[in-house]
Amino acid sequence: MIVDTIEDARGTLNYIQDRKTLLVPIFCSPTQHVAVNTLCAIYIYTEDDIERIVPFRHSEQLRGFTELVPEFLALENIFVHDKKQWLQTGGNGAVWDVKTLWWYTYAEAYDESHYPTAAHRFYWRRHTNLPAVNSIVPLQQHLAMCQKIRHYAWPMCVNAELTESYLQFNATYPQVFARIESAGLAVTDDFRMPELIHNERVYSQYNYHTVTGRPSNAFGGFNFAAMNKEDGTRAAFCSRFERGALVEMDFDSYHVRLIATAIGYELPASSIHDYLGRFYFDTDALTEEQRAESKAITFRLLYGGIDSEFLSIPFFRKVNDFVYTLWDKWKRAGCIYTPITKRSICKDAVQNMTAFKLFNYYLQAIETEVSVRKLQQVQDLLRDYESCIVLYTYDSMLFDMNYEEARELLPAIKNVLEQGNLPVKCKVGDIYDKMKTISL
Where are the domains of the chain? Predict the structure, then answer.
């Protein structure tokens, strides 16, 4: 049913209040980032097998219902096809994310590439210069696409258990990453993919539905998670403020310190590589060459396996015990659980597992869960300010900082990030490839 009267539209809002419901947003552009996109229509399916399309901006509609968009966005306790996108549209956070539920249920990323119909692909190819091309794709084709989505998603929505782990993840990750994405990154005209620029900004897109939960970050063919530091790519990124700068906060020896917390080993707040280097080289004062070699040795041991001669070092002996305890749990139970969200990583999701490969998966999961918790705390701190987080990359966060707010915010942010013996290094710069270390 295509809703074409205001009475039917309002009736739909009332009808779904007490029914299990799936909602699929349809955006005007298939290529623009959701942060700068608009709703073309929404598809609604309820548990009594009734489906509707409510058009907002479409060439076939008899009447538009844009004045009702806020009421649809305010819906609670429904299943939404992509909660991270829904939040950036202005949607209510009290909804359940279908893509995350799929990931929890089937231990695989959600693949939506097969949903668009042949008609969708024809219109998208034919009208590449039309920003709102979905507004002329026939509504029946949108209906057919959403019926495919419902065919796969609905049985899961009905039968899958909304575990405490899922509910915690669903309440946190879409919200955190939606805020980062919607902030965008300010760029100059030198940005190498000008087709991605919208009002002097480009927008990232995080995918956290990976085996470890560690997010990738790419949009429109640009990889925000792996920007080259040497080829000038970063030179196009700047502050959005007339009086502002980019500030990067980078965790020092992040993985080593996270491991120490996991195994209950107390590390000094000073340089980890100096601390471990004293064991490697049997000296109290390392040369610069030894310090660099110490870092290489530490990473080789943690990621590739601990050689027997290093088991005399207390830290690595405890790490080795932890690795094989984790491995034993995996072999006996077929699963391990991440420390904060208690999400399972099971045998069905991975192949050719080894003890240290499992340990690295677990470490990446710890890294992400701790970082997301800190991102959430920092976002709460920034809620009433113009300054914002614009990029998260594993062990670092990039802020676009208004000078007028910097004196107050930077020490407060640093304090939040460093809780748990996780010191950070700070850099500041007018552009992203010319950052200078500062002390706070």
Answer: 6-162, 164-440
Q: Looking at residue 358, what is its pLDDT?
A: 95
Measured in degrees and rounded to the nearest 5, phi and psi for residue 244 equal -160, 175
Given a contact cutoff of 8 angstroms between Cβ atoms, the answer to whether 336 and 283 are in contact is: no
What tokens were used for 69? Answer: 């968009």
Diameter over CA atoms, the chain: 81
Residue 312: φ, ψ to 5°:
-75, -15
Instruction: Let me know: does 274 contact 256? Beta carbons within 8 Å.
Output: no
Tell me the two tokens of residue 364.
Answer: 């990446």
Helix or strand run (H / E) with residue 92: none
Please answer whether residues 255 and 367 qualify as being in contact, where contact means their C-beta atoms are separated by less than 8 angstroms: yes
Locate 68 and state its tokens: 């009702």
Tokens 């502002």 appear where? 244
Enumerate residues 6+ apart whose C-beta is below 8 A from 5: 62, 63
Q: What fold does the segment set 164-440 form as a domain?
A: Alpha-Beta Plaits (3.30.70)
Q: What is the DSSP string of 195-212?
A: GG-BTTEE---EE--SSS
Tell me what pLDDT residue 317 has.
96
Supply the DSSP symbol for 39. Answer: E
pLDDT value at position 78? 97
420: its two tokens: 């748990």
Predicted confidence at residue 350, as pLDDT, reads 85
pTM: 0.95
String of b and e for 72-95 (b: at least 16 CB within 10 Å)? bbebeebbbbbbbbbbbbebbeeb
Identify the pLDDT of residue 267.
Answer: 92
Burial 106-118, CB ≥16 within 10 A → b, else e = ebeebeeeebbbe
Q: What are phi and psi of 357, to 5 degrees?
A: -65, -45
d(CA 280, CA 428): 34
How many residues are given for the chain?
Answer: 440
**CB-CB contact of 338 with 361 (8 Å):** no
Q: Tally the C-alpha atoms within 13 A of residue 326's C-alpha that lie toward its C-beta.
A: 27
Beta bridge partners of 206: 217
273-290 residue pLDDT tens: 999 999 999 998 889 999
The list of the chain residues with pLDDT below 70 reads none
pLDDT at 223: 97
For the segment(s) 6-162, the CATH number from 3.40.1350, 3.20.170, 3.30.420, 2.40.160 is 3.30.420
